[in-house]
Automatic annotation (TrEMBL):
Signal peptide: 1-23
Protein keywords: Signal
Keyword tRNA processing included in the entry's annotation: no
Region Disordered: start-end pairs: 26-54
Protein name as it appears in the record: Polyisoprenoid-binding protein
Positions of the Lipid/polyisoprenoid-binding YceI-like domain: 62-226
Gene3D superfamilies named in the record: Lipid/polyisoprenoid-binding, YceI-like
Length: 238
């Protein structure tokens, strides 16, 4: 009859040891915030707004737009589901740049609608139809600057008349001068620019399906242009 008592002895010893063990020390109280950690403490100054890029040294001249390296891309919202694009390719025109008097510079561009590509043949046909550009009746879009102003650094503000379907409206392009230099392949003076603007297509008679298909269209432009090739030089460049 003593065997059960013997079996319970180790258990009793374990409980006694646990009862005599020191209690777990309470967690240290959270230290009060020091002045350096408060909202009013000296914090790093806000990053300054980036300065305009350094001015690009322009080279005066008349530059012919290179259609192989020029894109005029339009983007819009399609019922909120997608944001498709279309490229108005095969641009023709010229940029006259006056490095000594930027306001004497000018831009003229023609965008033949047979170069329009939405990257989907059926939609190309729809865009060229009377629902939109009516390309059979109005085969090209044109832009002719009315003023060019320096906007600081390597930026320009180009204001001009955009004509679509014989409707002409003023448009302002926020332009960036990318580079003036000798073209490494053509071995003659070249210039490069990017530009952006936002316009309402309904202002130009192509407002079908607005506002479900967004009326506002963002235009992004990139272009290279070179001075005319000397007589007898090859016209094709890389």
């Amino acid at each position: 009859m003593q065997r059960p008592a013997l079996l319970l002895l180790p258990l009793a010893l374990t409980l006694a040891i646990a009862a005599c063990s020191p209690a777990e020390p309470p967690a240290a109280a959270e230290a009060p915030a020091t002045p350096a950690a408060t909202a009013d403490a000296a914090a790093p100054a806000a990053e300054p707004a980036p300065a305009d890029a350094a001015p690009v040294e322009g080279v005066s001249g008349t530059y012919l737009i290179d259609p192989n390296h020029t894109n005029v891309v339009a983007q819009w919202s399609h019922f909120g589901f997608s944001n498709p694009v279309a490229n108005f390719g095969q641009a023709e025109g010229r940029i006259v740049y006056d490095a000594d008097n930027v306001s004497a510079s000018s831009v003229e561009v023609t965008l033949p609608l047979d170069g329009l590509s939405s990257f989907a043949e059926d939609f190309n046909d729809h865009l060229r139809s009377a629902d939109f550009f009516d390309a059979e009746k109005f085969p090209a879009i044109t832009f002719k600057s009315t003023s060019v102003e320096s906007a600081g650094g390597n930026r320009l503000k180009v204001t001009g008349d955009l004509t679509v379907k014989d409707i002409t409206r003023p448009v302002v392009l926020d332009a960036t001068i990318n580079r003036f230099a000798e073209h490494p392949m053509a071995k003659r003076a070249a210039a490069g620019f990017d530009a952006t603007t936002t316009l309402k297509r309904s202002d130009f008679g192509v407002g079908a399906y607005a506002p479900n298909v967004s009326d506002e269209v963002e235009l992004r432009i990139t272009t290279e242009a070179m001075v005319a090739a000397p007589e007898g030089a090859d016209a094709a460049e890389g």
